[in-house]
Design goal:
Blueprint (H helix, E strand, L loop, with lengths): L61 H5 L4 H4 L2 H14 L4 E4 L2 E4 L5 H10 L5 H5 L12 H17 L3 H12 L4 H20 L10 H9 L1
Antiparallel strand pairs: 1-2
Helix pairs in contact: 3-6, 4-6, 6-8, 7-8, 7-9, 8-9
Length: about 220
């Protein structure tokens, strides 16, 4: 079993687009969900007290998680519930407080999804709002840290590779905290990304070593 105290702080300054998974086409967003541009929003995360296992498929925010689901998935309550639980684990809330106003965000779109992930890390806000800041916070690169969280959230959301969510479920069953689980998954991902980005070996298109690491968690 992995030591969940391991983080992703010791990986140098590489961040931004890591090239591990491509960005898919964005879904059109409802205008009511559009964010104001300009100064970085003052995000306050909420929603982690949700009971992820018992959340109803017909809940108020279920549409945001199931909008792109195949009709055959939605026709099977058990399958739909499993999809909803997985995606709510990746992104537990669909709203944030922005400049004092509660704004609904679309977790199915990767840009709003990143804002929701940033909102889970209010202690990094000052650095993330400054595009020129390279400041570390407690020895951690905030941009890299959030990027790794986003990659893992994307993989859990898409269930690709399958081993990511399988590992997360095993760690949850063992009683580990969600945020620590995400850190453990990001650590295993970083073990594959760092040698690629430093030129030690070429990317593994099948992610075989990464999958093996996840199976070992």
């Amino acid at each position: 079993m992995v030591c969940l105290s391991r983080g992703v702080s010791g990986l140098g300054g590489w961040g931004g687009e890591l090239g591990w998974r491509g960005r898919r086409a964005k879904r059109p967003q409802n205008k009511s969900r559009q964010l104001r541009r300009g100064r970085g929003p003052a995000l306050v995360f909420r929603g982690l007290d949700r009971d992820l296992e018992q959340a109803a498929v017909d809940g108020d925010d279920a549409e945001a998680y199931l909008a792109d689901a195949d009709s055959s998935v939605l026709a099977d309550p058990k399958t739909a519930q499993e999809l909803l639980a997985r995606r709510r684990f990746a992104v537990p809330a669909v709203a944030a407080s922005i400049d004092g106003d509660e704004i609904e965000l679309d977790p199915g779109d990767e840009d709003p999804r990143r804002l929701l992930i940033v909102a889970e890390h209010p202690h990094y806000r000052a650095v993330l709002e400054d595009p020129f800041s390279e400041q570390l916070v407690d020895g951690i690169n905030p941009r890299l840290h959030v990027t790794m969280h986003q990659i893992i959230a994307n993989q859990i959301w898409d269930d690709t590779p399958l081993e990511v969510w399988q590992a997360a479920q095993r760690l949850r069953a063992a009683g580990h905290d969600r945020h620590d689980i995400l850190h453990a998954l990001a650590y295993e991902l970083s073990q594959e990304l760092h040698p690629v980005l430093t030129g030690q070996h070429a990317p593994d298109p099948d992610m075989t070593a990464y999958r093996d690491r996840l199976r070992a968690l």
